[in-house]
Amino acid sequence: MKNILSSTALAAALLLGGHGFASAQSTQSSQMRGTASPMSEEQLKNTLRERGYTEIEDIRRDGQMFRISQARRYGETVDNLRVDVSTGQVRNEDRLSEDQVNNMLEERGYYDVENVERDGFTYTADAKQRVRLRVDGQSGSISRERTREDD
Q: Long-range CB contacts (< 8 A, 24+ apart) of 66-75?
């Protein structure tokens, strides 16, 4: 059981850590050049996919923003996204809903997710792997994972 939890924790860290490392590299490269280059539509789509967006429709450039008429994020439709052309940061991103947190955790390999509860901008949830998770409601990053005590 401990091996399964360790593997899950490692996989989550690698999944989340890889995105953070890539973002840091991209930001650092832009800072070294002195200016940030605009992303291509394909780079934008890849960045948004890493943050749980799919079915990204109608991308238009408007100055320093991309405008996206509609997309889905962890199973729910989101409309009228404004995204920074240089960083890929969604400027009007809503906090994840409980259903989105549940969908995100299942996509990341957790199963039988239950007791999803919001406390401010953070969610907690239990998973069948007998872990208690803390999830950032804005970014979706898992900030803490610990083994639950036996019931």
A: 66/39, 66/41, 73/100, 74/99, 74/100, 74/101, 74/103, 74/104, 74/107, 74/140, 75/99, 75/100, 75/103
Write out the two tokens for 15. Answer: 């999944």
Provide φ and ψ at 125, rounded to 5°.
-155, 155
The whole-model pTM stands at 0.66
Place of tokens 């919001």: 118
pLDDT tens figures, 63-106: 999 999 999 999 999 999 999 999 999 999 999 999 999 999 99
CATH of domain 98-147: 3.10.450
Query: What residue segments make up the domains of the chain, in order of their start?
Result: 38-93, 98-147
